Structure formats: C-alpha cells, structure tokens
User: What shape does this take?
Amino acid sequence: PEEDASSPQPESSEAGTESLIGAPIPESAAQPESYFDDAVFIGDSLTTGLSLYGLLPEEQVLADTGINPQTILTRECISQDGTDKTVLDAAAALSPAKIYIMLGANGVAFLNFEDIVDWYGQLIDGLREEHPDSEIYVQSVLPVTREREDDTLNNARITELNGLLQEMAADKGVFYLSVNEAIADEEGFLPTDLSADGMHFGTTVYEEWLQYLLCHTAEGALA
Assistant: This one.
C-alpha cells in the first residue's frame, strides 16, 4: 500500500532532502563538532587553512593553493599513501558521509563563468559516481575586502558566480550553502581587519565558518 504522506520520513530520504534543493540550507540547530568526523573538504588555499590552523585533520582536507575549477580536475596535488593524486582520486580512497566544496576564488577574475559551472559540475559528477550516498554541499565563493577589489576581482562578480553555482547545485541535486553570511560585513565585504591580503584570513574566521556549517545541515533542517 502507498505510504501515508503524513508518515515520518527518514532524514536522508529523497523526499525529505528534495525540499532543501534550490535554495541555501536554512539555519538549524547546531550539530556537535563530531559531525565533521566523516566529512571531506575540497577547495583551494582558503580550504587548506582548515587543516593548516589545526581545525580539521589534514587527511580530510583535499585542497591546494592556487587550484581552480578547471585545474582541480587534473592537478595531482594531494599526497596520499606516498602518491600524488588528483582531488577526485584522493576522494575515491576515502568514505565521506559529507563532502563540502568551495571553489572559484581562483578563477573568478579570469575564467569564463559558464566554463566554471561546467567544470564544477564535472567534479560533482565524479564525486557522486564514487560516493553515491554522500551528502554534497556546494559552498559560496567568499567575498574579498573593499580594498582588494579591482575590475576583475570584485564582490559583484563573486555574487554573480555564486548565483550560477546555486543554480548548478539545484540542477545537480546537491545542497548549497551561503557561507558568506558567516563572515561578510553588512555591505557584503570581507572585513578589512580580518585579512592582510584582502582574501585570506586567520583562525577566528575559520571557526566562524565551521560553526556556520554546523548550524546549516541537511539533518538539522529536516529535524
């Protein structure tokens, strides 16, 4: 017999998670820090800070300085078991329940946005093939400071790219997280006093970033 629509659904059910696709994950009750024990973080130098500052184990952070949505598909930059691997190959050797991706800070100034979205989609397809049961979260590209902005690297372009990434996440059926909310000031900039170079930051911001993720989970939103 057909199940009553009012019956409780498992948190991981497709029916439940579908309602979270297409918009940023809303704020929810905080998960414990152990929530990240089975998570993997993929990205560029911004993501490397998660392990460099000791907030996450190095083996859970598949990231490399200077990598962008194009080069992440082919660059053998992750050392694993004595071998340099691509991010996809390194991820294939792990068993994450959650995969967090943040890409685009390197490339927003010079790569075509349509190409970025296509490469990003290829990465997600590769991850899903190896990890069909993992929750995949696309994180927004973080803002830069007002002083760092120029004609090609600026928050207007970052906002435009984030809109396209949100649409891509919806098309791929994965979750989208507006992490900018955690660190941007009231005008959408990375606060000047938090960054020496206009883009990177220290431990305090990383802690706020992770706390944001703990308070914006699919499990929490469906509880």
User: Anything to note?
Assistant: The chain has eight helices and seven strands. The longest strand covers residues 39-43. The chain has a mean pLDDT of 92. Helices lie at 14-18, 45-52, 87-92, 113-130, 155-172, 180-183, 203-214, 218-222.
